[in-house]
UniProtKB/TrEMBL annotation:
This is Integral membrane protein. It comes from Actinomadura rayongensis. InterPro entries: DUF6350. Pfam families: DUF6350. Residues 403-503 are annotated as: Disordered. Residues 471-489 have a biased composition (Basic and acidic residues). The keyword Phosphoprotein does not apply. Residues 432-453 have a biased composition (Pro residues). The keyword Cytoplasm does not apply. It comes from the Bacteria. The chain crosses the membrane at residues 21-51, 88-109, 121-140, 152-175, 199-224, 236-254, 266-285, 305-326, 338-358, 378-397. Keywords: Membrane, Transmembrane, Transmembrane helix.
Amino acid sequence: MSDMTRERRTAPDRAGTQRPLLVTGLVGAVWCVGIGLAVLVTVTLVGWIAAPRSALGTGLPGVFRTAVTFWLVAHHAGLSLPDGRVGLLPLGVVALPGALLYRCGGWMLRTSGRRTRRGVVDVAVALAVPYTLFAGLLALAATKPPVRPSPWQALLCCFTVALVAGGLGAARGIVARRGRVRSGLGALLRLLPERPRSLVVGVSGALAVLLAAGALLVGVALAFHLPEANRLYGELAPGVVGGVLLLVVELAFLPNAIIWGTSYAVGAGFAVGTGTSVSVTGVFLDTVPAFPPLAALPDPGPAPALSLLALAAPFAAGAVGGVLTVRALPSPAAETAPLWGFTTGALTGLVLAALAALSGGPMGGGRLRTVGPSPWQVGLLAALEVGVAAALAAWLANGRALRRTGEPKPRRRRRPPRPPRDAAPVLLTEPLPDPVVPLPAPEPAPKPVPAVPDPLEFEDAEPVLPARRTRPPEPEPDEPRPRDDRTENRGGAIFVLRDEADD
């Protein structure tokens, strides 16, 4: 079978696999919701068997409602309890639905056959709308006293997570055809224009430095307070299965702790209850819940001297963000580079404020109604500190880039040297300038040189007699006839023959 026949037979089959986008979005939403619920129901069943059964619901319907509540919490949707509202939710659990939606976005793009930037938006919306409808139905199914999920938060959070994760997966699907892309951020950068791309690169670099500083601060604090964390773990006595579940919960709250450490490094700090504060200006604490990661909190009083080194993190983040912004797209005007650097710092503060709002929240009523950092304080301080450092770093880096890419200094024009005769011809990429050569003075006419015979050239004696001259015409009778002498060569000697009649 020829290749052309094979292509003709497979073309209808390939076209037949392309489904309508609405149908693909519905299938993808069912797939993501089903897998996410299956994982959480399994974990809830294990906890229900290991722990007292009344803690996670009564009977299998109660276990299913608890699993649905955990699924909504994984999208950062809050709950309402008789004592108050629960808004302090683990950010690490968002990775489960985010990964499923990310994969589903790429699959929908390949199935629908869309290969444009508009197709990314269409795929993200087609996935987010049915996913949000399923989330609303599940929130209504899980609503039963004493736990009541917030319907509007369930709709808003599930739509946002599906839109962002599905869009990144679709963007990666488009760029993956042109080359290998490892992350959704790389796909997003390739689809953005130059200036937004440079800002995203700068903000990502600054956030990476800030979050790394927060993680380092949390790790050092846990290392110094490890004995107290072991004491709290012993008081809880969760057992083997409960210990594994407790470790999962601690890992789920680890991103929240890193953001709290970043807020401490910025200078805003955070609260663990009403009237408390943990910042560089001092530590004011009250009774802390018995949760092992909270053992890393410093003792009340002045802030530890070692933790003051974290105050250099915002300025280092600003320097990194400003340099990355300029390296991604240098500014042709030197006075606009600090403006783009400060814009990078302002956007970094905005993103960090959003992360601070997601990492904190109330833990019921009473004193724990305020837990976590203040979003506006974190955003304002981060924007100022990172923005000033980024503006200065962008100005210096942009000036250096302009000096490297600027025009060279003019040089005195010189006539290029004449290449040797045996050298290979050189191809010039640019035409050489015409040298300015003065007109030569007129030279005097050369004097004629007498011809000098070459000493090596000579003539041999002619070995034969020359040709005989023609006889002149007969003179008139009355005039005497001129004498006619003849010569004859005999054996190399020349003889003169006279005419006897004349004698």
